[in-house]
Hints:
The chain is of the alpha+beta class. It has helices at about 40-55, 60-75, 85-95, 125-130, 150-155, 210-220, 240-245, 290-300, 365-375; strands spanning about 10, 15-20, 25-30, 80-85, 105-110, 115-120, 135-140, 160-170, 170-180, 190, 195-200, 225-230, 255-260, 265-270, 280-285, 305-310, 315-320, 330-335, 355. The strands form 3 sheets. Strands 1, 3, 4, 13, 14, 17 and 18 form a 7-stranded mixed beta sheet that branches. Strands 2-5-6-7-8-9 form a 6-stranded antiparallel beta sheet. Strands 10-11-12-15-16-19 form a 6-stranded mixed beta sheet, with helices on both faces.
Amino acid sequence: MNISKPKFIITLAAAFVLGIALSGIGFYALGSTGASSPADSDKLSEIQKYIDSYYLEEYDRDELAEGMYKGYVQGLGDPYSVYMDSEEYDSWKATATGDYSGIGITFSEDDRGRYVVLSVSPDSPAEKAGIKEGDFILTVDGKEYEVSDVMAAAIRGKEGTRVTIEVARDGEKKTFRITREKITTKSVEGRMLDRDTGYISISSFVNSTGEDFGKALDKIEESGAEFLILDLRDNGGGLVDQCVEVADRFLDKGVVCYVQDKDGNSESYDAEDGRTKLKTVVLVNENSASASEILAAALQDNGYQVVGNNTFGKGVIQTTLEMSDGSALKLTIMEYLSPDKHKVNKVGVKPDVSVEDKESTEADEQLEKAKTLLN
């Protein structure tokens, strides 16, 4: 992998995998820049004057200011760029760097600002309680959250403690009281579908994904398989270095993806020689996000067929900037591009063959279609 490390330590996760390690999170301390703040504006002074003169209730000036900072960053229109006050940031840091448990869900923020559950880990507390993919998280312990990172921290917690999650499903509200557990995520599952065809699914990209995928692929190759189906459906993303390690097994030496900043400067993640000889088809759906989209786009640009639904469309990188007063700013600073310089963010990966997996049937139409493309 060939990439120079940027000034910022970047957050590489697309979604928030609750109960496993977060990916690539770092902190960068900022002092005052001397730049004019929104609090200096004449318009804000005028608003403050009217509040002081006419507002009915008592209020806390500090809370008013914190709300202003949140709104100011929200004005960027980027769901991944957020302001965290010092209390929210402390909570986020504690669960991001410590040994905590969770409930076994992955969620992300959609283009309407809603928190949608992308996947639910098998046999997890969330699955046992009844939370399903596609649920929209409304509250955690009765509280609404504007910052997805902070809500993720609230869902995680110590093993054996309980958390109450309220979701919306098909226009109805449902409430689940769930006991947190240690979540051991097995991100790779591999097996033979028949004598000639192997199948590997990757549910997320965690520290062991690259190694586990290599073992699963080696086993399938040793079984005498000629074909492989790589399933990235419902994969919310994770560690990009693990994504690159998987891509390495499918690509000749060359670019897996580019990262590009606002000035057009770019660096690349590169694969080495040593691709598998198995003819491979890739499965994706609307819940395939971030690192899984990077992998799917890289394989598609290199001639592999992609089957399923258009992917989620999250192809940007954030860094966390610590302010001098203990608060923090999480900003989008780079975006991913495919080897052929195709955008992923807000676009996703369009399958070569679009197939719906119908809920009304027990069959897996996408998997069945992939099989027909291998023969």
